[in-house]
Amino acid sequence: MQNHWAWLINRWQGFITEAGEEKIEVEVTTDARKGQVIIPQGFGLVYDGVKYGANVNRLTKNTNRDFVGTPMHRYVPCRVEAA
Length: 83
Known about the structure:
Blueprint: E1 12-16, E2 21-25, E3 45-47, E4 50-52, E5 79-82
């Protein structure tokens, strides 16, 4: 893990796209390619006041769909900021 990623580790970060933003806890890993963000779909479930996962639909524009109308969650440019 490179030192310049230290500000990300074990913190909540804002992921911002053209469509919206979500705050998600970050883990830095070598499992993803450089410049790639992997966000597990959790649908933003809130149970007993605790939010589990992110609703990636909020990060994808309704016009970013394939020919049958399925949201294209891949290849969405985003910006990561400290929350």
